[in-house]
Structure formats: C-alpha cells, structure tokens
Write the structure tokens for this entry.
Amino acid sequence: WKAAQVSLQQISPAMPRLPDAYFLYAVTLENLGQLKASVQAAEHYVAREPGDPRGRRLLADLLIRTNDPHGALKQLQAMPPALQSDPGVLMLYGIANRSIGKLDAAYRYFSQAAARAPKSPAPLVAMAAVQSAGGNAAGSVATLRKAAQLAPGNPIIERLLAQAALSAGEINTAKSALASLRAKEGSEAEPALAGQIDLASFDLTGAKAEYQ
C-alpha cells in the first residue's frame, strides 16, 4: 500500500483525468490507516462520479469510522434504489443509526440484512449488540445462538455469547460458551469473564483464582 501511495502521488497531476484514480487513492489511504485523508479522496471521487455506488458506499463506511454517521446516512440515501436492499448497504444503515442512538431503526436494518444474507453471522451479531444495548439480554442470547450455528466455533461469537448469557442470568450457557472458547485458546483465556461467571455461580474460590 505504501508503494501504491507513492505511485499515485507521482501521477497526482493527472489524477483528475483518470476515471478511478481518486477511488483507488481513497482505498490506498484507508489501508494505510489515514482515514481522514481517505475521506477527502473519496469525496473527490463522489463529486466526480456521483452515479458510481462504489464511491458512495466507500465514503459512507469511512464517515462512520470517522464519527460522522449523519454524513454516512446522507451518502447511503443518495445511492440508487436498486442498491438500497443490498446486505452491505443495509449493514451500513444499521451501524449509522446505532451510532446516533436510533436503536429501533438499527435493529430493523440489521434484520433486513440478515434476511438478505441468511448465511452470514454478521447481521445477527449486530442485532444482538442492539438488543443488549436496549436491555434485552435474553433476546441477545437467542440471536447469538443463531449466529453461532452459522459460524460454529467462532471465538468472537463465543465471547459475546458468554457475556450476553451472563447478563441474562443464563449461567450454564455462559459456562458452555466459555468452555468452548477455552478449548481453542487455552485454559487461561478470558479470566475476568470466567471470574464473573464463577461469582454468579457463587463459586468464590474459583472466582478468586480467575481474578488472580
């Protein structure tokens, strides 16, 4: 990516005349972690090619990651109607709405994404996060169980399931998820979470050992 950046900088005087130059520059800067500069390049591209949904989708994603969810929603709403039901676009809608505190709207968009991409666990994980934020711990557990069925053994989902189950008071589910995680990552994985589970089980000796 650094080599790509150097090459693009060398042709910078000609970039306005090259169709995808600013899009490629935005992607390059994104992968270098220069998100603010990447936003500027993506804005240049969208201004030049307003009908290309790639640019708006990239810009919306970058705006979310640079804490401008309202700007992201504006870009998403400007995309063609045919793409408004694309799973990736629906996920961005959900993330942007969650960022501004509209949990009901976020959940609705994530649900639509899950329906459009039934084999992907990502929308379900996002739905579970919204349920948890809204105080529906039991619902979060149920949703994460579905996600775990789509991605068996996924350590991220197992961590989230253990945490959600603990919040919901489903201690056996939390223990099972933690045991599955530790079978892959070792017996000392997530000691703080294990300590919380032990405390909820009134196992003070076990909790003390985990916290130590």
DSSP finds 13 helices and no strands in the chain. The radius of gyration is 21 Å.
